[in-house]
Specification:
The radius of gyration is 36 Å and the shape is globular. The protein has about 1100 residues and is mainly beta. The chain has an 11-stranded mixed β-barrel with strand order 27-28-29-39-38-35-36-37-31-32-33. It contains 10 helices and 72 strands. Helix content is about 5%, strand content about 40%.
Length: about 1100
């Protein structure tokens, strides 16, 4: 072993030198001429020039193999160094956290740019012998023991592509270009990826991230994408390089013996749970020796001396917290000569092998810290103990993984039952699907009845322990004769039998993963039937799967007969990973009536079965299962439907102690099935005959009646993370578990319990850039998810006409309410809903005092809408090209609206009907929110609660003369209002908890009030400010004259309040240069102090528009 080599300082020096020589590889660096042929002259297609583009599907003549799939018949090529196995979603066309939701091969994942001819991206499928032979040679060098003969190769070349640089260009990247290539070579049984990085081909290692707004390193990686049809989660993924040093070494090093050439096995039985890199660079020819004059004798290191390590599949994502053991280069996963003896099982069904197969060893770790030529760090770990770190995926998503002395075990979390590898909600109905085939002789017949591919479906009511099994298309020549064999479906009853305290049913023990072989001997007949069944756990649909095979001879039962089976008991004997049972069954056959009588006969058969399964052997603290348990079966019903050719079995099952016929132990309604709990509820036995009903996980109700609540993505993520953390110890440092709201959606504000930092997330739980605040401060995040609509009488969506007078209008999720003002006093008894919009999340409000219209922003669609206060249906005026429209303001003189968009980080203007849109600002904005106008003077004001640099800015309405108005002593400036009568600009700050005002032309500002809870929006009327508060869910009045809160209004619906505006009974006096005849402008008239500017809307090709001042 390596330990024997590293016995002296000289040996250590020699090991360093040896690694340098190995990494150098033969033949020098790869030249551009040694790339696979590419370009239009070789049949390449060319990706359209631009940024973040995706090619049309490249249809393949030979299917690709990728991880555990073998059916990928098309791929997509992107500008950004990815070959995708399915079309990337629009929101993932630019690089983001790895892994993506789609399958991906990433030879150089970065934000690349081919705009204006900055490089080319070529791609094709090549079937020519010259190219496939070249690919085979590359693979052979990396995997010398593999005989690989590809029939096709996908060749993708990124030639002289540029880095995306963002708004502030880095002069050091000017003129830098990268050239690299990816080959996906496929045979009928496997696919290999070949990455080629020529000398001087990688001139930059980082690009500007649009999401993180800084330079981030490229990534070399593979991702399986999301897996699962119902519960989707990240599949396997491997990150091989994700920092400057390892990216820089791609052209200098190799894992295949030739510098700049990297080979990976990406699709075969060996890659179901991860890509396998070549590791030729670690091998030496037998007999190779290196002499050093400092050595007493020559030292030899052969293949057998090199110890390998497993690459962690759960590599860190960009932006994750916590500590990860990430290699800085392409770490080998296993020796090239090491091949799995058998294909690994499917990822969602695999589990650790029994403990004796992995003898405990002390880990031997050898680190080579610095390798002069390459700077590569290697770490070899010989610890063969399986741990949760790389095996968490082998546990159910509803289970914890716990490391133990000799391995790891899985445990279902509270509310779920199973063996940890497979877990289902307690009390929830279960479905079992499978196939049945048979070769059965009936009676004395010498000709067997043969059937193949027959469907089996079973439905189990867990809280009754009752199973209903149907086997379809059973020939009538054998259908009636199979009626006594209820145990064919009875095994399903045993799996979900009602458990008495201290006893376990089959699913709790095996997780529905086992093999069963049974033998039925009919007393008095030479007939015997063999039943073989394979249970394969839960499939991607959440159903248990079973395959059944029947072979042998059964006594003949006459057509039209019925069979009655008396209740019976059966003893199950348990030893390590084996269960056996035997019993004697009686059944009565009643033949069809003849001559007024229906003959009946009683018969008996003997039953023996053996069940083998895999259990976790590493936890000695688990309660010992009783060596014998008794299954009690009653209410047995069997039927063969001759017309439909369906065989049906129904049984009720409970598991408990061995009894001598005394039914006392089974009198609790939970055990005898008389509890009356909902089919989706668990029955919890109490003392004597007492019990309670409890709805299963995912259902709500009183237990007698339960209704389904579909799990959200947030809830599933929480379950996954909480299951991954060991409940017996504190959570690992850095582990972040998201919070869900009362509806199961991601709470818009997420905080890290360890660091105290908080940030906003979108509806998919992704962090909103620029929202992370320092510890102790919660950002004012907005939920984009509309609450669930409760079924009931429909609510009219038309506006209820507004009575005369001045009103406050404020937004709650799904509606706008009106609150009349009498003077400056809120007439709370007259507050009513103005508009119901249950499918919207209304944030900002603005009022047009001319046409008596209310305007709003809706972040759920997203959209901008309006409605007349005289009544009528609301209308949407803008629904395209919006991210998160929040603040909205209105110039009643110039007839324009202005709004902020915190997702697109811009401020726009449009006419009141939503036409003639123009972007005013799209730079130096991070979290713009509140916005107001001074219509008479032609000024615009807005807040930006950027966590690092909060500010209040101003400009003219045409976008000129932009400047910062307030920058010091701000926290989270949310709401903003301008009072036309007093010419005061006032704001509320959720970070400083203050309301402040200033006159824009004067430098001083005044603190109106301190100690606010969590103000969001503000408006003014008369002597008062009125603001909405998130903590109090109320509208609060503040008297500006005395700097005091004078009143508050709590709406009947206690949910978060958003925007607020004053609906004035008449417009303020004054005019601007856009008041008359649109200021003489053809399109947008934007007021400025003492003048106006005529502007054209964006995208006005072919429009007769004149701009002038």
């Amino acid at each position: 072993m390596l330990a024997t080599v590293l016995r002296s300082g000289a040996a250590w020096t020699w090991a360093l030198l040896l690694l340098q020589l190995l990494l150098a590889g033969p033949g020098g660096c790869l030249s551009r001429q040694e790339l696979f042929p590419f370009g239009p002259e070789h049949g390449d297609l060319e990706l359209e020039a631009g940024d973040d583009l995706v090619s049309p599907a490249l249809e393949l003549s030979t299917a690709l193999h990728f991880f555990d799939r073998s059916d990928i018949d098309s791929v997509y090529v992107t500008t950004n160094g990815i070959i995708a196995m399915s079309e990337p979603p629009a929101k993932e066309t630019h690089p983001g956290p790895f892994p993506p939701t789609f399958g991906a091969v990433a030879p150089f994942l970065a934000d690349l740019d081919t705009t204006d001819g900055l490089g080319k991206v070529y791609y094709r499928e090549d079937l020519s012998p010259s190219v496939t032979q070249l690919a085979a040679e590359c693979v052979q060098r990396g995997f010398p023991e593999v005989s690989f003969k590809p029939s096709s190769a996908v060749v993708v070349t990124w030639e002289s592509v540029a880095p995306y640089q963002g708004p502030s260009k880095d002069p050091t990247l000017e003129g830098k270009r990268n050239t690299f290539q990816s080959i996906l070579a496929s045979s009928d049984s496997s696919t290999y990826a070949i990455f080629l990085y020529p000398e001087d081909g990688l001139q930059f290692y980082t690009t500007f991230s649009k999401k993180e707004e800084n330079q981030v390193p490229a990534v070399v990686a593979f991702s399986q994408g999301l897996v699962g049809l119902i519960w989707k989660s990240d599949g396997a993924y491997n990150i091989f390089a994700n920092d400057r040093e390892s990216i820089g070494n791609l052209a200098k090093s190799s894992n295949s013996g030739q510098q700049g050439v990297w080979v990976f096995e990406i699709g075969s039985p060996a890659t179901a749970s991860g890509v396998v890199p070549a590791d030729t660079n670690l091998g030496l020819d037998d007999g190779a020796e290196y002499d050093d004059e400092d050595y007493d004798s020559a030292t030899h290191l052969g293949q057998e001396d090199v110890v390998t390590t497993s690459f962690p599949h759960e590599a860190p994502r960009r932006g994750d917290s916590g500590t990860y053991n990430t290699p800085s280069d392409l770490s080998p996963r296993r020796m090239a000569t090491e091949r799995p003896l058998t294909p690994p099982t499917e990822r969602t069904r695999s589990f650790q092998l029994p403990g004796e197969r992995f003898p405990q060893q002390q880990p031997q770790v050898i680190d080579v810290d610095e390798v002069e030529e390459t700077g590569i760090v290697f770490s070899y770990n010989t610890d063969s103990r399986q741990t949760c770190t790389n095996n968490r995926h082998q546990c159910s998503v509803h289970a914890q993984c716990r490391d133990l002395a000799t391995g790891f075990c899985c445990y279902c979390v509270a509310g779920y039952t199973g063996n940890g590898r497979q877990c289902v909600a307690e009390g929830s109905p279960q479905r079992v699907n499978g196939k049945v085939k048979g070769r059965i002789f009936v009676g004395d017949s010498q000709v067997p009845i043969v059937f193949e591919n027959t469907d089996l479906h079973s439905y189990v009511v867990m809280n009754h322990g009752r199973s209903y099994t149907a086997i379809s298309t059973i020939p009538e020549t054998v259908g009636y004769s199979l009626l006594p064999l209820a145990p064919i479906g009875g095994i399903i009853g045993w799996m979900f039998a009602v458990e008495q305290d201290g006893f376990k049913n089959g699913f709790s023990i095996t997780g529905g993963e086992f093999t069963r072989q049974a033998e039925v001997t009919f007393v008095g007949h030479p007939d015997k039937l063999i039943i073989k069944q394979q249970f394969s756990g839960i499939d991607e649909h959440g159903h248990l799967t079973i395959d059944t095979e029947l072979e042998g001879r059964v006594p003949q039962i006459a057509f039209g007969s019925s069979v009655h089976i008396e209740p019976y008991t059966e003893l199950y004997h348990y030893s390590r990973q084996v269960i056996t049972s035997s019993s004697t069954r009686e059944y009565t056959v009643t033949e069809p009536e003849r001559d007024g009588t229906a003959p009946s006969h009683s018969h008996t058969y003997q039953w023996r079965q053996t069940i083998t399964f895999q259990e976790c052997l590493h936890d000695d603290s688990l309660p010992v299962l009783p060596s014998t348990q008794q299954l009690s079966v009653d209410s047995v019903f069997v039927l063969y439907n001759q017309e439909e050719r369906i065989l049906r079995y129904a049984l009720s099952n409970s598991i408990g102690p061995v009894r001598d016929g005394s039914p006392d132990a089974l009198q609790n309604p939970c055990y005898i099935g008389s509890h009356g709990c909902d089919a989706n509820a668990a029955c919890r036995p109490g003392p004597g005959t007492q019990f309670t009903c409890e709805c299963s996980i995912g259902f709500r109700g009183d237990g007698r009646t339960c209704y389904e609540v579909e799990k959200t993505r947030c809830q599933r993520e929480r379950e996954h993370l909480l299951g991954a953390a060991d409940s017996q110890r504190p959570r690992p440092p850095g582990l972040f578990v998201p919070e869900c709201d009362e509806h199961g959606h991601y709470a818009p504000t997420q905080c890290h319990g360890g660091t105290g930092y908080c940030w906003c997330v979108d509806r998919d739980g992704r962090e909103v850039v620029g929202t992370r605040t320092r510890p102790g401060m919660r950002p004012p995040c907005l939920s984009t998810v509309t609450p669930p609509v409760h079924h009931g009488p429909p609510v009219p969506t038309a506006v209820i006409p507004l009575p005369p007078g001045t009103h406050l209008l404020f937004a709650q999720t799904g509606k706008i309410e009106r609150l009349p003002l009498e003077g400056s006093t809120m007439t709370k008894s007259e507050a009513k809903a103005l508009l119901h919009a249950p499918d919207k999340v209304i944030i900002g409000l603005a009022f047009d005092c001319v046409d008596k219209m209310v305007y709003w922003t809706d972040i759920s669609q997203p959209a901008i809408g309006r409605a007349s206060l005289h009544g009528g249906e609301p209308t949407t005026i803008i629904r395209q090209d919006l991210g998160s429209p929040e603040g909205i303001a209105l110039d009643h003189l110039g007839r324009n609206i202005f709004w902020t968009d915190s997702h697109l980080d811009r401020i726009e203007v449009a006419k009141l009907d939503g036409t003639q849109r123009r972007v005013l600002f799209e730079t130096d904005l991070v979290n713009p929110r509140g916005i107001v106008t001074d219509s008479v003077r032609g000024n615009l004001y807005w807040t930006d609660w950027n966590r690092d640099n909060p500010k209040i800015e101003t400009s003219y309405m045409d976008g000129t003369n932009r400047r910062i108005l307030v920058q010091d002593n701000l926290g989270l400036p949310n709401g903003l209002t301008f009072d036309a009568y007093s010419s005061q600009l006032c704001w509320v700050d959720a970070g400083t908890h203050r309301a402040e005002c200033l006159k824009p032309g004067q430098p001083s500002r005044r603190k109106v009030l301190e100690g606010l809870q969590y103000p969001f929006a503000v408006t003014s009327f008369g002597k008062n400010l009125y603001y909405t508060d998130w903590k109090m869910n109320s509208v609060v009045a503040v008297d500006l004259a005395v700097s005091k809160e004078t009143d508050s209004f709590h709406p009947h619906k206690q949910t978060r309040l958003y925007g607020i505006t004053s609906a004035l009974s008449q417009c303020p006096e004054g005019h601007n240069y856009c008041s008359v005849n649109n200021g003489g402008c053809t399109h947008l008239c934007l007021a400025t102090p003492g003048s106006r500017t005529c502007r054209c809307p964006d995208n006005t090709l072919g429009v007769d528009c004149i701009e002038r001042k």
